[in-house]
Specification:
4 helices; globular; five-stranded antiparallel beta sheet
C-alpha cells in the first residue's frame, strides 16, 4: 500500500472522531506481518516479540505515538506522558518508519 493510499485509508476510518483502535483493520491489511490489537481506544502494533508502536488519538488531527521495546507493552506508557504528538501526516510517517525497520 502506498503512503498516499495508507493516509487516505486512515483518514477515512478516523473521519468520525473514532479512536485510534479503529485503525486495526487498515494496519493489518497494509502490514500483515505485524500483530495488531486494541487496548481500549488505543492501537498497539507489534513487530517480533518486543517492538511495539502505541497509538492514541488525542483530537481531530492529533495523536500520541510511542515506539517501545518490551516483552509486554501497554498503552499505560501513554498515560504517563510518553511518546510524541503527531498530526495525521506524522502518524502515517511513524507507522511506515516502524514497518521499515
Amino acid at each position: 500500500m502506498s503512503e498516499k493510499s495508507l493516509k487516505d485509508a486512515i483518514a477515512a476510518v478516523l473521519a468520525d472522531d473514532r479512536p485510534a483502535a479503529e485503525l486495526d483493520g487498515v494496519v493489518s491489511e497494509a502490514f500483515p506481518e505485524f500483530g495488531v490489537f486494541r487496548e481500549e481506544g488505543d492501537l498497539v502494533i507489534v513487530a517480533g516479540e518486543t517492538r511495539r508502536l502505541l497509538i492514541r488519538r488525542l483530537g481531530p488531527n492529533l495523536f500520541r505515538v510511542s515506539e517501545n521495546a518490551a516483552a509486554s507493552g501497554s498503552t499505560n506508557l501513554l498515560d504517563a506522558g510518553g511518546g510524541y504528538e503527531r498530526d495525521l501526516d506524522g502518524l502515517v510517517e511513524e507507522i511506515e518508519a516502524f514497518a521499515a525497520i
